[in-house]
Amino acid sequence: MISKNRVKQIKSLEKKKQRNESGLFLAEGNKLVADMLPAFEAELILAKSSWLATQGDLPARELLDADEEDIRKASLLKNPQDVIAVFRQPDWSIEAVDTAGQLVLALDGVQDPGNLGTIIRIADWFGLESIVCSPDTADVFNPKVVQATMGALARVKVVYTDLVEWLTQQKEKNIPLYGTLLDGENIYTKELTETGILIMGNEGNGISPEIEALVNEKLFIPSFPAGRDTSESLNVATATAIVCAEFRRRSL
Known about the structure:
By secondary structure, this protein is an alpha/beta fold. It contains ten helices and ten strands.
């Protein structure tokens, strides 16, 4: 039986302060944990014996054989599966982000954990290996974000930095800075480069004025048919998927 103190330790990782102080994060679910194991250092795996029996030699500091009640007590999910894992946060740095010959996502204040997790999954699908975030973007190690990535976090690096300063540096290197704006050019007819930085803004306010001033390639996703009354805007994750898909389509 898992101790109350251990349950408390695991559940404390729901809070950003505890994640930052410990340098740890939480992942739950059979497939998610299996996807994360090759990419991150596992501090603890709490799992049913049936799951452990299918995994072979697990690279974790501590393994705890748990029953269904143990999993339920420690889980943050309404419907827990067979395994909960505590991983050490990777040491991702802005210096490791290579923009030469790459498509890179930049997120300006994306605050919904579900949106961020979905965007990471979209980046993984379209082969974007790095996402650069403003400090006010949701924490990538929030359990809700981790769950929403569906394992894509194992293949996409997410870093936080002063986005204005970093984008200014990239602009000085003549890296194209694309942003989705209401006064942009139709993405389906505009000429696009195979590489560059794709900037996506906050759910309610879009791209901030400071970063909009740096954008040198403005894009607009039109609704159809032209002139028809429609929704005011697209969800930021949906818009990200459309933009990434169009860039990759052009490179075929």
